[in-house]
C-alpha cells in the first residue's frame, strides 16, 4: 500500500469554482468582460453552501468572476484577493465570435487549435503554453502565500483545466480536450508541504452534494 508523504504543516485546501452563465450567449469569451446573467447569479449562489467556510477568496478580475467573489467575501467577512494571471485564455480575433462564425472564416485553424497544436493559437491570441505558464505561476504564488488556509478560487474553465494539468501531470492540450468544466461546477484540491516537496491531489470534481445544477452544461 502506498502511503501519502507526511505533511510538515496544515494542508492547503483550494475549491475552484467556475463562473456562472455570462451575458452574450455561447461565444469565445476569453478576456472579453461580460457580466453574469440573472441565471448565472443563481447558479453561483446555489454552488455555495450556507454553512461552508473559507479563509480567503481569490478571483480573476473579470466581471463574471469578480462580481460574485466580491459580493460573497463582503457578505461573509472573508478577505478578497484578485490576480490578472487568473484570467481566461486570450482568444484574440476570435473574442466575441461563435464557433460557427469562426468555422466559416477560419475553420482549419480552429480545428488545429482544438487539436492542441501549439503552432496554431487563435489569431492575435495567446498560446496554450503561455496560458499554462501564467496560470501555473499564479497557482504556485498563491499556494505559497496562503499556505495552510482554505481558499475559494473563482475563475474560468480554462484556468481550472490548466490547474488540473499541473496536478494530474498531463499536457495542457489533453486537459482542455478531456476535462469538462460546466458553469458553477467545483473542483477541490489538497496541497501538502512534505519532506519530499509539495504533494497535490484532486479530491473532488463536479458539483457539491445537493447542488441544483441550474442549466449548468
UniProtKB/TrEMBL annotation:
Q: Which CDD domains match?
A: HP_PGM_like
InterPro entries xrefs:
His_Pase_superF_clade-1 (IPR013078), His_PPase_superfam (IPR029033), PGM_Phosphatase (IPR050275)
Matching SUPFAM superfamilies, A to Z?
Answer: Phosphoglycerate mutase-like
* Protein name per Swiss-Prot or TrEMBL: Histidine phosphatase family protein
Give the species: Alcanivorax quisquiliarum
Amino acid at each position: 500500500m502506498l502511503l501519502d508523504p507526511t505533511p510538515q504543516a496544515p494542508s492547503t485546501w483550494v475549491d475552484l469554482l467556475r463562473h456562472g452563465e455570462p451575458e452574450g450567449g455561447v461565444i469565445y469569451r476569453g478576456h472579453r468582460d461580460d457580466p453574469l446573467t440573472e441565471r448565472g447569479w443563481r447558479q453561483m449562489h446555489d454552488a455555495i453552501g450556507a454553512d461552508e467556510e473559507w479563509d480567503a477568496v481569490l478571483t480573476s478580475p473579470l466581471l463574471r468572476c469578480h462580481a460574485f467573489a466580491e459580493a460573497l467575501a463582503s457578505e461573509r467577512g472573508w478577505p478578497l484577493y484578485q490576480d490578472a494571471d487568473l484570467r481566461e485564455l486570450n482568444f484574440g480575433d476570435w473574442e466575441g465570435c461563435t464557433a460557427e462564425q469562426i468555422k466559416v472564416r477560419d475553420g482549419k485553424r480552429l480545428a488545429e487549435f482544438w487539436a492542441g497544436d501549439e503552432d496554431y493559437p487563435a489569431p492575435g491570441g495567446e498560446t496554450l503554453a503561455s496560458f499554462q505558464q501564467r496560470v501555473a505561476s499564479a497557482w504556485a504564488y498563491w499556494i505559497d502565500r496562503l499556505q495552510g488556509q482554505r481558499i475559494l478560487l473563482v475563475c474560468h474553465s480554462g484556468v481550472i483545466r490548466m490547474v488540473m494539468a499541473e496536478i494530474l501531470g498531463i499536457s495542457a492540450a489533453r486537459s482542455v480536450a478531456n476535462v469538462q468544466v460546466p458553469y458553477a461546477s467545483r473542483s477541490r484540491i489538497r496541497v501538502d508541504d512534505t519532506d519530499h516537496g509539495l504533494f497535490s491531489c484532486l479530491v473532488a470534481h463536479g458539483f457539491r452534494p445537493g447542488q441544483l445544477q441550474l442549466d449548468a452544461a
